[in-house]
Amino acid sequence: MKFNLFTKKQPQEQEDKKQMREKIIAEFIRQTQLTFNLALGVSTASAIITLLGVGLFYLDKIPEASLTAGGGIVFSIGSVQFAKETRKELEEILESLDDE
After folding, report:
1. What range(s) does the Cyanobacterial TRADD-N associated 2 transmembrane domain occupy (predicted)?
2. Which site from 31, 46, 47, 99 is most exposed, i.e. has the minimal number of CB atoms within 10 Å?
């Protein structure tokens, strides 16, 4: 009986790992692009809401203005925080791939 401890599949396994790493990186780049587009859209919407709040303030509609401006600020903070978290996750995963 012949025992083959070291198969010749090692180069193939390394190639598979390399392809898997490339696919993961491509997926992360795609997700990052989508996240950026989403953050850009939310930032635009929050800017419009904030400007609407300023307009209401000038029309002496103070309660509506404060509510609208507050909503715009909350949207802005939320979108910035979301973008930071996504970028941090991406960096952590790429670092873990580099460690392998």
Report:
1. 29-90
2. 99
Both structure tokens of 70: 């507050």
Q: How far is CA 16 from CA 7, 10, 19, 46, 71, in A?
A: 15, 10, 5, 44, 48
What rounded mean pLDDT belongs to the chain? 75
The contacts of residue 88 (CB under 8 Å, 6+ apart) are none
Same domain, 37 and 52: yes
Q: Which of 56, 76, 79, 77 is nearest to 66 (CA)?
A: 56
Please give the DSSP secondary-structure letter assigned to residue 44. H
For residue 21, give every residue at least 6 positions away whose Cβ sits within 8 Å of its Cβ, in sequence order, or none.
97
Q: How far is CA 61 from the centre of its chain?
A: 37
Structural domain harbouring 25: 13-62
